[in-house]
Task: structure prediction
Amino acid sequence: MLERTMWTAVMLMSLALVFWPCALRAEEMEDWYEFRPEEDAGPSVIGMEDWLEPAGSRGAVRMVEDRFEFEDGTPVKFWGVNLGNMDCAPPKEHGARWARWHAKYGVNAVRLHKFIEPGGAGIGHPEDSTRFDPESLDLFDYFIAQLRENGMYYGFSWVFGHQVRPADRDRLIAYDEIVEAGGGTSRVAVFIGEDVQDLRIEMLTNLLKHRNPYTGLTYAEDPALAFIEFHNEDSIFFYTFRGFNDLDSMPTYKRMFNERFSDWLRERHGSHEGLVEAWGEEALNAFEIEDEHLDRGNIMVQGNPWFFGPDGLAHGAEQGLRRRLLDTAEFLFEAQGSFYRRFRDAIRETGYEGPLVGSCWKTPPGLPHYYNLHTDYEVGFIDRHAYFGGGVHAWRPQPGTFNNRSQLDLPGSGILSVGLMQVLNRPFANSEWTTVFPNEWTIESSAIMALYGLGLQGWDASYHFASHTRSYGDNMFASRTCDPRLWVVDIPNQIGIYPALARMVYRGDVEQGEVISTRRVSLEELREGKPDWIHREEVIDTWDFMQYDGPISRAALAAGRVLVDFVDEPAESDVPDLTRFVDGNVIRSNTGQLTWHGDPDEGHRGYITADTPASKVLVGFPPREEVVLGEVTFRTENPFAGLFLTSLGQEEDLSNAESLLLVAMARVRNTGMRFNEAGDELLELGTPPMLIEPVVAEIAIEGRTVRAVRVLDHDGRRTERTLPVADGRFTIDGTRDRAFYYEIELGD
Result:
């Protein structure tokens, strides 16, 4: 049995979130400087174009145990972004520019998201789900060729809530029921009806068989296609199965599914009498059907996944329903697994041999979580989503209260917490994540993802949500070419720090940690609602904000790798001794490279550091004294800041690099953006241009001669301005420099 292992300091962090006042009066923002890039995709100091080879040049992507490799055996990590809907098929000049510009910032992969619908939603044909609009498909094909040429792999997250169309009528058993239920979306029916699955399969396989005239390849044979996702953000153990577009609105599919369940129960228990003996008489007619009988084929599937979670099973036991609920959960697991296997087999028949992912979504904790995770494990790699911040969910930015907490206050919280779902011998991806507007601590998410996710935890792919086919946005939540949004990558405190982080990811600056915890789970146990510790896991879920915790504390993710292992027979799980990694209020990774600091009892906020041969990083709410990271010392008075110092070269570290890149970033706001005094309510959205909070910091480098420190412009190009240097020590001042990029030239 697992037991929660924690130490006093981290327990205090979990109980007390201390906020630094972040609301600033207008006069206190007078030193903030305007963000004025020329959006130049040409040569620059920060540019990473020469780091990226044409996509597919080393062969197709393959899933090899717990990592991705190219066919020639070269390992690869994907540091990417999302594009959605018609951004996946942009005007040709926009697509070409987007690919060049994002290659400059080090993006090597793109998740193409829900692009199969027609009109403004994607490339689909308005009358027939299995066909494509010729003009939109041509734009899509051209854009794919541009991505490949600029070194970017792409993945298909192609469908979400697919709407059936008139020509689909003859393919579906109950077309009218789907049309009348929730406006025609097939989100629920696809788990139940093989006819709906066949339609989805035909949609995707037709695209995979399509030959792109700009590459000469079908999509199935294109080595630049890095993954295929079966469907986005859904599960048979999610609320959509009994809520939106639910089974009650589709009586034909509901009846068919109850009959299928009854057949499954007959095979399991032999007869109605055997079912009664296993379940107990009181378990029949427990829901809406009053004359349940196995011979009538009308045993109802209770599809509410919370019935199978910790609270639901406990309540079900009190009502005499535990065995019924356990059987239902296993049946749903097998139904989803059957759906996924049909999809997998059809995709493989097209000739595509690359990575697959079932879905990327959550469930209630406990039994639903591990059944759902197991179906993903069976067909491919594990992918999840996690967001942090944001306000009352409205899909569009608006004034109001919001979550302005920092993930750094609680080790392993926020987007990193999905790492508790990483599975042994499977690659792990986080294909949607960001700090949601208007949370102010944006840079922490990117740093956590690069340092702790793709670094310490050994994750394999990151797709930041979401970019748009343009270059920089012109304010915090929108641009000249898109509607206001809560998730925008192309702003300076998001993609602006990529030239440092992408270098760190591709060089492997942060070492993968040793495994400190393995939770072992067998299907044999799950059938009986075990192991017991799964019922003590927690999921905090408010729209797109997700956070996980459980008997293995999320704080363990700051110390070393944490895995799930699906085993054939019940086995004990490993509980980490976290005291080995604790020094006062600091969690030190088992690689010795990363530290996570925090002391809410003293009124301090959290911060993280990275000390590697090629990079030194300080992000968060730093102390007022010097932070020493090997041969580099940082000191800043900023209440919140990120300092990213990294070698510019692919094969160099700080001991032999000719030059370094320094990225110094804090908060970014729109002009006229206003908050309340507590900093947790947005009063005014503000307007362009964006304003950048200046970072003032003293930096010292020992062991090398600092020949020059050059100020770069907002596009990362050299200017004529240099900073004074004395004995390897210099001071950057964003108020004076109006800059966040610096090039440091070194000598022996």
